TrEMBL record:
GO terms for molecular function: DNA binding; sigma factor activity. Transmembrane segments: none annotated. This is RNA polymerase sigma factor, sigma-70 family. Keywords: DNA-binding, Sigma factor, Transcription, Transcription regulation. Residues 23-90 form the RNA polymerase sigma-70 region domain.
Length: 187
């Protein structure tokens, strides 16, 4: 666990002082990176906010362990998010190296990249799940918790056998959606 895990804890606990410290330490760096690459202050604020929300979601279950500096992790996530925005805009070429002004140990950068890629993959799976039918989404999300499946079945008004069958079908559908998604085809 990296000492910067404290920033993850601040996000998990919605600690306003800790979150303010994150902004104080890193917002100007993220802003500079975005502004140097065809963005503005509003873009930078949006990207940083989205990145922090993604990190919060990734760590909400309490199992996420940061193994690199928080700055490297945050910058990598923001960089990927901004590159995605630029790809969507397609008319705004990158004007400067997006790495200008950031010096990280290559191991830290690689670790942050792995974390960011995992975050992107998890976010994509959750988006695919959100686009599934209501019943499948409800069943899969209910089964993701710590509650036993027998309790989930009772809460949803289903028999345990039907829940297991339906969950299996829904997971199969989700698996097919994941396999077809371009993010997962590249690996």
């Amino acid at each position: 666990m990296h000492p910067d895990q404290r920033f993850i804890t601040c996000l998990q606990q919605n600690d306003s002082r800790g979150i303010a410290e994150i902004y104080r330490l890193y917002a100007s760096k993220i802003s500079r990176m975005i502004r140097y690459n065809s963005g503005d202050e509003a873009d930078a604020a949006d990207i940083m906010q989205e990145a922090l929300v993604d990190i919060y979601r990734m760590s909400a279950d309490g199992r996420f362990v940061l193994t690199c500096p928080f700055e490297a992790f945050l910058v990598t996530i923001c960089k990927r998010k901004w590159l995605n925005v630029l790809k969507k805009r397609a008319s705004s070429p990158v004007t400067k190296s997006i790495d200008d002004g950031f010096n990280f140990d290559k191991d830290d950068e690689a670790e942050a990249g792995r974390h960011a890629e995992q975050l992107e993959r998890e976010h994509t799976v959750m988006q695919l799940l959100a686009n599934m039918g209501d019943r499948c989404r409800e069943i899969i999300q209910a089964c993701m918790g710590k509650e036993h499946q027998e309790q989930v079945a009772e809460r949803l008004g289903l028999t345990y056998a039907y829940l297991r069958k339906k969950k299996s079908e829904c997971m199969g559908k989700l698996g097919q959606l994941v396999k077809k998604h371009p993010l997962f085809k590249r690996n």
